[in-house]
Amino acid sequence: MAADLWKSLLQTAKEKIIQQRRASLYDCAHGYQEELIKKKLQQFPGGSINLSKEGNGIGILTLNNPRLMNAFTGTMMLELQERVTELETWKEGKGLIVCGVGNTFCSGSDLNAVKAMSNSEDGMNMCMFMQNTLTRLMRLPLISVALVQGKALGGGAELTTTCDFRLMTPGSEIRFVHKQMGLVPGWGGATRLVQIVGHGAALQLLSGAVKVDPEGALRLGLSEKTLVSSDETGSLEEARAWLSLYTEGPASVIQAVKKVVTAGKELPLEAALRTEKDVFGSVWGGPANLQALVRRPKHK
Ligand SMILES: CC[C@@H](C(=O)O)C(=O)SCCNC(=O)CCNC(=O)[C@H](O)C(C)(C)COP(=O)(O)OP(=O)(O)OC[C@H]1O[C@@H](n2cnc3c(N)ncnc32)[C@H](O)[C@@H]1OP(=O)(O)O
């Protein structure tokens, strides 16, 4: 009994490590020093990243550092990695809403930490750490939505692009302020922005550090919808309702949908087709498929 439990724990830990390796971009072969940057980030505490998993398979990931407009401290970066690891193994999960407390989304990196880490080694390690985490966040088999209230600036704007969709509240803004800081995005935000809005619009948004309001974001295809509520509770409720349109059904099927779309977006044609075949194999003849065959629904 104890041996079985131990074996299953080991297996879970092994699966977690393999999954993380597969989804991460950088390791020591790229000069990435994960333990070093983790120790460094620990030196800049404050705030938290909270995760609540609701019974309907929707996770709410909340940035909580209201004193600094939800800026990312070092420990918040570490906590984000932990929460993503937790979400990767959430079997019942279907969707994810990423939001901030106190009527704002996120004002980017904590500038106090950025200043203290302005040397090249720390900067590159932090960049690789955040790219690894945010790429894993983007690849979660969950349909994800960034609920943008107030401001999403710098790294906060980059975070919105890791989600499949963005919903904005009236008066909110997304702004890649990096140029004003003498920088370009480093958390993968430029690459993802090009995929979302195209090369020309991305170039304009980054080179002009343009403030994108909800109307502009809709026009560019950066946002799906402008919500009616601007308060925290009302907008979260609206975001839940919007997401529920796409998360109806069993988790295994919703996760399979996200996996085939991610493969289609990220992989060359033949590799994407092979992934689609594998994912298809995981749902074919599965419980949801067999139940549907018994029910024989009409799709009118
Ligand atoms: C690596 C770089 C890049 C990345 O990671 O990709 C970045 O993200 S760099 C950070 C980019 N963000 C910024 O530069 C934001 C700078 N802040 C502002 O522009 C303004 O504070 C605001 C966010 C527009 C809010 O303005 P306002 O409503 O007038 O409030 P305050 O300015 O009084 O802010 C309250 C409080 O919060 C502190 N704050 C805000 N953002 C940050 C931040 N990113 N890092 C650290 N602290 C931040 C601000 O300094 C105020 O604190 P006190 O001065 O102690 O009151």
From TrEMBL:
Q: Which UniProt keywords apply?
A: Cytoplasm, Lyase
Q: Would I find Lyase among this entry's keywords?
A: yes
* Reactions catalysed: (2S)-ethylmalonyl-CoA + H(+) = butanoyl-CoA + CO2; (S)-methylmalonyl-CoA + H(+) = propanoyl-CoA + CO2; (2R)-ethylmalonyl-CoA + H(+) = butanoyl-CoA + CO2
Q: Which Pfam families match?
A: ECH_1
Primary location group: cytoplasm
Under Gene Ontology molecular function, one entry of this record is: methyl/ethyl malonyl-CoA decarboxylase activity
Q: What top-level class of enzyme does the UniProt entry assign?
A: lyase
Enzyme Commission number, as recorded? 4.1.1.94
Give the superkingdom in one word. Eukaryota
Which InterPro entries does the annotation name? ClpP/crotonase-like_dom_sf (IPR029045), Enoyl-CoA_hyd/isom_CS (IPR018376), Enoyl-CoA_hydra/iso (IPR001753)
Single Gene Ontology BP annotation: fatty acid beta-oxidation
Q: What is its subcellular localisation?
A: Cytoplasm, Cytosol
Record family assignment: Belongs to the enoyl-CoA hydratase/isomerase family.
The UniProt function text for this chain reads:
Decarboxylates ethylmalonyl-CoA, a potentially toxic metabolite, to form butyryl-CoA, suggesting it might be involved in metabolite proofreading. Acts preferentially on (S)-ethylmalonyl-CoA but also has some activity on the (R)-isomer. Also has methylmalonyl-CoA decarboxylase activity at lower level.
Give the protein's recorded name.
Ethylmalonyl-CoA decarboxylase
Annotated organism of origin: Dromaius novaehollandiae
What high-level taxonomic lineage is stated for the organism? Eukaryota, Metazoa, Chordata, Craniata, Vertebrata
Q: Which gene encodes it?
A: ECHDC1
